[in-house]
Structure formats: C-alpha cells, structure tokens
Queue: 4 jobs
Job 1
Amino acid sequence: MSMGIREVKVPTFGEQLMEISIETPPIDTVEKVKHMFAEIAEIIKNDYQSNNRHPLKSMLFDHAVGEIVSAQMAVEKVLTMKHYTENENTEGKQDTDK
C-alpha cells in the first residue's frame, strides 16, 4: 500500500476572516469587496507579526480587525440593499384621507 502526500492549502488570516478563498475569483461585487478586505487584513497581520509587538499595538491590531469586519459588512449591506421606493412606502398604509 503506497501512501501519497496530499498538499492542502491553509486559508490565510484574511481568507478566514472574510470566509472566502483567494483561489476562487470573485463572481460579483460583494465577493470582490470581500477579497479587498481580506487583502487589507493580511497586510496588517503581516505587519503586526513582523514588527515589535507591544500592548498598545496589540490593542490597535484587534481594533483594526474589528473595524475591517464592520466596514466589510456595511459595504455589503449598501451593495445588496433593495431600493426603497414610494410604492413600497404606501403599500401597507391605509387611506386616511377619506
């Protein structure tokens, strides 16, 4: 019985954070945004790991990661929000002018 070696790509920090795979190209605008934020997360993680770490930098790193996630979710909401029209505003409203 021969045993083969199977290579498995470990997702990067940014990929895990944005729940994407860099190997798959973005199919829409939301996926493209997620890829961009994943890249930003990778940049700050690499900087954080390579430079002197101290408590203040650690706190700022944690805060920045949280802000990246918040910003990505806000951008996704803007991109996927259905347009609110005057028609939708009056659909459930009863006619009170009579």
Job 2
Amino acid sequence: MGNSLNFLLQATKVLHNRNYDDSELKIIYDYLISIDNEMLNDYFNTSTILTYKNDLELYVEILKTMITIFESEEKQEYEKCGLLIKKINESIRIMETEK
C-alpha cells in the first residue's frame, strides 16, 4: 500500500504543477485504471493525509484532474475520460456502501 500511496502523491504533485508530458500522463492514466476494487477498498479504509477522510478521496481527486486534462482542446481523449469516470463511479459506490 505504501508504494501505491507514494505514486498517488507523486501524481498529485506532477498534475498540480502542470509539469508533465504525454508519457507521464500515460503512466498515471494506466496506473489509475489498473486499480481494482480491493485496492479501492484499501484506499477507503486508510487515511494517510489528514485533509482527506480517506485515501480514496485523493484517488478520486486525481481522477477528476485527469479527466479535465483529457477533455481539454489539445487532448480530446474522450475514451480515456470514459474509463476514468467508470473508476470514479466505482469509488463513489464504495464510499456510499461503507458509510
């Protein structure tokens, strides 16, 4: 779980600073869509960063940022957005189920 969280934190930093190229976006995207429900549940049950209720909230925030990037005029990669939205929906179901 530690490496997974480190990756999320690094992705947040790269995306926030807008300091990324296409290969970095691909790495982040591939990682985000590879997360299975077991890991999503682990994120939900872990709270590493105090500003979030759980690490799943951080994951969803990164997904939303990636959607914004892929929806931009320069990217227009809507198929990727669809998969990212699917991951957001899976995450929301976990958050609602676990309330």
Job 3
Amino acid sequence: METGSGFLESNNYGTGIVRVNPFVGIWIDGIGFARLGVSTYSFKERGEDESNELKRFDFSTQIGVSALGIEYPYIALSYVRAGAYAPTGDLTWNEIGAGIGHRFMLSPYAAIVVEAEHRWILEHYNKEDKKVSGRRLQMNFGLVAKPF
C-alpha cells in the first residue's frame, strides 16, 4: 500500500491513500532487490454539476540496494508511469522517487516492508491544458512472501 502527503492525483495537495499495488520481484539477500507492479482502479470524480468516472492504470518499477545485509536498511529508487482516463480527457505522467526502507522479518519466508521516499511528479498537462508538476513524501507499507 502506498500513501502520500503532498501532490496527489487530484491535482491538489493533501494526504491520502494513493495506490494499492501488487508487486512481483526478486530479493537477493545481502545485495538488494528489483520489483515490478501494476495497479488499476477507478473512482468517481464529482464536480459542481456532474460526475465522471476516472480510471487509473499505473506501472511501477523499483530497485533497492542493501550492501550491508538484510538486517540493515536499504536505499530504493522508483519509477512510475501513471495514467488517468476519463470521458473529459486522458492524462499520463511520470513519477520518480528515491528513499530508504527496511524489511522486518516475520519468519524465514515472510517480512513486513516499510519505506519512505520522496516522489517527484514530472511536468505534464492536466485536463485544462495547464502545466502540472509537484512532489510528495511517499510512505510504502507491504508484505513480502518468499515462495522458496
């Protein structure tokens, strides 16, 4: 689950749940990880006199390096290609992030992941053809399960 405080998908500032993403990836203990995620969802955007359904599609990639071992924090870099599709117009934008995270082992096969990263929303045009960019503090919480 990813939560953010700062620039959110509604082109305003605030705090809220931004995305819930399933990820698949590879963890190599003592070195780092790479993972990919895809998220789709929709919500109703209510205006003064009308309501539109907004559909989202996000593709996420993340790499992390932990050269000291699994009991130490890791440094993570992320990239998100996000899209919002609505009857009034479609938007796509890129987000990049850098942060730090830690795995808390629950068992030899499962761990809880906590990450904090700074996300930059790169410049793009919104529905009113205005240039939009921003940044936010992103908190990520997750569960890692090792199949073997």
Job 4
Amino acid sequence: MWGAFMSTIAIIVVATVYVALLAYYCELEKQENFKSATTLKVILSAYAAGVCVYAAILLNNYVFYIFALGLICAVPADFFLQYIKTDLKKYRFGILFFGLMHLCLIVSFFLIYPVTFYEFIIFAVFIAILLGFQILGKWEIGKEKTQLTVYTVLVVFMAAKAISLYIIAPSGFTLMVALGGLFFFISDLFLGIWAYSKSKFVFLALNRIIYFAGQLCLAFYLVERLS
C-alpha cells in the first residue's frame, strides 16, 4: 500500500512539472523563439526518458530496459525534428531516431504479449485514416518519402500493438501504454497537417501537446509498475 501511495505521489509530481514546462514550451513555439523552444523541447523529452530509465533500473527487467531505450531515442529525435522545414538532413536524422524509438517500443510490447490479430486490424484502420488525411489534405511529401513510409509503418504498428495490449489485458498499466501509442499516432497526424499543408500554428501546438502527453503516459506506465 505504501508503494502504491508513493507511486501516486511520484506521478503527480512528474505530471505537474511536465505540464508546466510543456505550457511554457508551447508559448516559446508560438513566439517563434527557435533556440529556446528547441532547448526546452529536448529537456521535456529527456525528462520523460529519465523517468523511464530510473523506473527501468528499479524494475531491473530487460523488457523495461528496451522500453526505456525507446524513450531515450526520442531525445535526439525531438532535437532533429525541430528542423523539419529548414534542414532536410537533420529532419531525416529525426525520422531515423523516432523510427528507432518506435521499434524499441514494438519489441518491448511483443515481449510483454505475443502476436494477436487485434494489432493487424487496428493497423489497417489506422493506415486507412492516415491515407485519407494524406489524400484529402494533398500532402506534398518530398525526397524523404521512402524514409517516412518506413517510419509510418513503425509508428502505426506500435500504436496498434499498444492498443491491442489493453484489449487483451485491460488494466491501469496497459491503459497507459494504449494511450501513449494512440497519442503518438494522433500527434503525427497533426504534424502532417501542419507540415504538408498551409495550416495554422494550432495544429503544431496540438501535435506537441498530444505527443508529450503520449510520452508522459509511457513514463507513467513504468512508474506504476513500481507500485
């Protein structure tokens, strides 16, 4: 019981600090303060990764080490992706590191629970949704098309597997995983709308808020496992 209480306190503290930093980060993005926004974005990502690493060390299980490694990959990914519209080379590095993040998460999810038909059904639905947005929005994807295609398969399959974990074994643990995967998928939709069409800042803000909410959910998953 004491462990559960301390876990709850830890979640509240982590969430409070995270939300405060996220609000300030979004304001910096709105002001187009690139350097400060990029720095704070990396800090936010490292914060979530640090929580995961700390929890994984305490849990001392190779599955959670792989899970935490995924969040570590998100740190350089968040830095490089800041250059999505200004530096193609750095943007590609961002896609690479995010792809590695999702690959680590997929591996850890399958170690938690093997293959089921649920993830393939959800995968097909999510791909259809994504293609619908791409066609209707007339997204003009450039030279990074091949890399983005591979990345898209990874993020969609990661989200599908995360949600399937909750369907198969519903609990507070798997709910955090499912929400994390779903939020990553939705955040990428908003990023696509912002990046590949003439859209307003609101879509970038939604991308950031939902993405970091996904990171927080995954961090909470490991913290809850400590109780």
